[in-house]
């Protein structure tokens, strides 16, 4: 059996009771650390909380060489842990399909996701969001501007955009870096950049930080420790505007 478990948003205690029980009875425990991270917990803390050893996986271990996970799931019960919900903005449906092809039963135990947390923190209504996008750190000769297309297409349809910010082994993109990159994309394409941004940090922690405003305001602000995420709102409904004024300094 292969069980996909969502860990929720911030620390080891954000997991559901069902998820924790599945870990406690599992033979092998895998944790992927490249699509999201629990910033309030490290592996040691998680192992202490679960009372079990955790095997840490990088992108290649999951996407290119998943045989070890599937072998363990074939022999006994394996759990596969992911920050947030395991199937939101990840590629883990591929692993579930591979398991099915090998005749391995699977199940999903869902977790709180950044996709819904942004609605609570910003007051932007979930049914007014269009396609989301991710901003990667640019590399030498590689500066994709497709996230700007997604944002502008959504604005044209009066839809908000959730923008995921890059996670690298040694750094996490900040709200300020994300805003600057969007402005540089607009400049490169000779298009206008969005006017309002909503930045959020540490959703799920006791001290999430939310700030709305123009690019200068967001670039100057200190959002503190990661993870960070951005929303580019389209037109604001009266209640969305009031919520952002009340809770995000708009
Ligand atoms: C690719 S998405 C994966 C989403 C995850 N599977 C989920 O359901 O929450 C990861 C990105 O979402 C944002 N994110 C995830 N958790 C966050 C948190 N607790 N606070 C702020 N941003 C977060 C960050 O921008 C991060 O790079």
TrEMBL record:
- Give UniProt keywords alphabetically: Methyltransferase, S-adenosyl-L-methionine, Transferase
Q: Whom does it interact with, and what assembly results?
A: Homodimer.
| An MF annotation (GO) of this entry | diphthine synthase activity
Q: What is its EC number?
A: 2.1.1.98
**Catalysed reaction per UniProt?**
2-[(3S)-amino-3-carboxypropyl]-L-histidyl-[translation elongation factor 2] + 3 S-adenosyl-L-methionine = diphthine-[translation elongation factor 2] + 3 S-adenosyl-L-homocysteine + 3 H(+)
Q: What class of enzyme is it?
A: transferase
The protein's superkingdom reads: Archaea
Tetrapyrrole methylase domain sequence ranges: 1-178
Binding annotation for S-adenosyl-L-methionine: 9, 85, 88, 113-114, 165, 203, 228
Family membership, please give it: Belongs to the diphthine synthase family.
According to UniProt, this protein's pathway is:
Protein modification; peptidyl-diphthamide biosynthesis
Q: Quote the InterPro entries the UniProt record gives.
A: 4pyrrol_Mease, 4pyrrol_Methylase_sf, 4pyrrole_Mease_sub1, 4pyrrole_Mease_sub2, Dphthn_synthase
Please give the name of this protein. Answer: Diphthine synthase
Sum up the protein's function in the record's words. Answer: S-adenosyl-L-methionine-dependent methyltransferase that catalyzes the trimethylation of the amino group of the modified target histidine residue in translation elongation factor 2 (EF-2), to form an intermediate called diphthine. The three successive methylation reactions represent the second step of diphthamide biosynthesis.
């Amino acid at each position: 059996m292969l069980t996909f478990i969502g860990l929720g948003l911030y620390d080891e205690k954000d997991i559901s009771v069902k998820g924790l029980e599945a870990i406690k009875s599992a033979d092998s425990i895998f944790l992927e650390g490249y699509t999201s991270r629990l910033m309030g917990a490290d592996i040691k803390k998680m192992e202490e909380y679960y009372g079990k050893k955790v095997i840490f996986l990088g992108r290649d271990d999951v996407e290119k060489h998943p045989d070890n996970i599937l072998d363990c799931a074939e022999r006994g019960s394996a759990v596969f842990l992911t920050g947030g919900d395991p199937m939101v903005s990840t590629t883990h449906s591929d692993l579930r399909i591979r398991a099915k092809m090998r005749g391995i039963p699977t199940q999903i135990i869902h977790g709180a996701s950044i996709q819904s947390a942004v609605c609570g923190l910003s007051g932007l209504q979930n049914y007014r969001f269009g396609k989301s996008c991710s901003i990667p750190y640019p590399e030498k000769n590689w500066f994709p501007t497709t996230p700007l297309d997604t944002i502008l297409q959504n604005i044209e349809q009066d839809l908000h955009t959730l923008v995921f910010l890059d996670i690298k082994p040694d750094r996490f993109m900040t709200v300020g870096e994300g805003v600057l990159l969007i402005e540089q994309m607009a400049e490169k394409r000779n298009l206008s950049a969005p006017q309002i941004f909503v930045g959020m940090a540490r959703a799920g922690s006791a001290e999430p930080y939310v700030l709305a405003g123009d690019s200068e305001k967001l670039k100057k602000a200190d959002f503190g420790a990661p993870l960070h995420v951005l929303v580019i709102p389209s037109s604001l409904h009266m209640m969305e505007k009031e919520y952002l004024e009340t809770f995000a300094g708009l």
